[in-house]
Amino acid sequence: MSEAESTFREDLKKNRDNGWSLFGLYQSLDQSGKMKEAQEVLNAYRRAWVNADFELTAPAF
Q1: Angstrom distance (rounded) from CA 25 to CA 48
Q2: Whole-angstrom Cα distance, residue 27 to residue 51?
Q3: What is the pLDDT of residues 14-32, one digit of tens each?
Q4: Each residue of 26-55: b (16+ CB within 10 Å) or e?
Q5: Greater confidence, 58 or 47?
Q6: Is the dihedral angle over the CA atoms 37, 44, 30, 8 positive or is it negative?
Q7: Residue 61, pLDDT score
């Protein structure tokens, strides 16, 4: 498990459904090639962020 993945998972234990942390966890899983889990987290992010007035984005790696 990467440091980023671990950090986002820890934050989600304290701040359940935090869109920022779900997005970060999604990115770290995607970069690690954990595609199935990344898709599940992306879906959770979309549910958490459904009423947001802007979309989170990140630069391409």
Answers
A1: 13
A2: 21
A3: 999 999 999 999 999 999 9
A4: bbbbbeeebeeebeebbebbeebbeeeeee
A5: 47
A6: negative
A7: 47
